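task queued by scheduler; priority normal; single chain, no ligands, no partner chains; default sampling; output format set to C-alpha cells
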Amino acid sequence: MNSKTFLRTAVLALMGLQSPLLGSQTPAAAHPAPSAMIPANYQAQEGFVDAHGVLIYYWTIGRGAPLVIVHGGPGASHDYFLPYLLPLARHNRLIFIDERGSGKSEKLEDPRGYTVENMAEDIEAVRQGLNLGKISLLGHSYGGVLAQAYALKYQQNLTHLLLCSTFASTREMNEVFVRMKEKMAPELRDRINRMEKEGLFGHAPDYRKGRYTDEYMIAAWGEGYFPYLYQNHPDPNYDPLQSGVSSWDLYREMWGSNGEFVIDGNLKSAEYLDRLPAIKIPTLIIAGDHDECDPSLSREMHEKISGSQLVILPKSGHMTFVDQPGLFLAAVADFLSHPHTQLLKSK
C-alpha cells in the first residue's frame, strides 16, 4: 500500500466509513489514525521586580508549581544554569533570578548593601511581586547559603527547599579550603600562596586592576578548583578566565579580597548550623562526591534538618547538574513530586 492509499484508508477508518480500497467493511477501531502529537510550547518571560528600591531581574519558563532558583558566586548570574535545568520546566514554573548587583539586576552604589540578609528580602519581594504564593526554592553554591537564610526567616512561604552543593557554616567551608590547598601539588600551592601574599588586586592596568590577574585565575579556578568542579562530564567550554566575568565589587564585599581559599568578607557571618533544626519543610540536599563544597558539609546539614533527604552524586564535582544531569534532574523531579505528608513523617 502506498502512502496516499494508507492516508485515505486511515481517514475513512477514522470516520467509521466503508473502505472501498480494502474492499470490505472495516471497523474504525481496527485502523486508528496515527496520533499527531503537537509539541509543547513553553513561552519564556522576563522582567524586573522592584525590591525595596533595587530592581531584581527574573526569567521564567514552564508550567506548574513555582520553583525559584538562585545562583552562586556571589556575583555570578542565572546563566550558568542554562540549558541544564530547562527539563524541569515540563512540570514546574521555573523562576530564575539574578541577585542584586549580579547579571541584569541593578547594581548598588554602596557595596555594603550586598548582604545575604538583603538578598533574602529580594527573594521575598520577587515572590510577592510575581504573586507566586508558596514556592519551592533551589539554591546552588552561594545560592544555597541564601536559600537557607530565606528558609530560616520565611519558611511559611515554602513548600520545598533544595540545597545544592552548598554549606551552612563559613567557618567549616574555610576549613575545607585549607584541606584543598594541602592536597595541591607543592609547586601549585607555592605559586598560589606567593600571589596571595603579594596581593591579588592593583597589579594590572587601570581597566582591570579591580579583579584577579589572569595568572591567579588560571591557578585558582583552573588548576586548583577544576578537580572539584567537574569529574564525569567536564564542560568543554570551561575557561577560568571567563569566571572573572563577575560583579567584582559585590564579590569582594561578600567573599573578600584575599583569594579563593578563604572567605573573609561579610559572608563569613553565615553560620546556620545551630539554627538548621528549625527548618521543618521538606528539604533535599544534593552534592557531588568530589564537590568543592565537600560532601561532609551536606551530610552535616542532613543530620541537622530532620526528615531531609540527602543525595551524593557519584563522579561529580561542584557542577552536579553538568556532571550528572540525568541523576540530578531525576532527584529534583522526584523530590518535588512527593506529597508533603510523605516527607514529613519523620519530622
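post-processing summary
- Residues 1-33, 341-347 have pLDDT under 50 and may be disordered.
- The beta strands are 45-51, 54-62, 65-70, 92-97, 135-140, 158-164, 283-288, 309-313.
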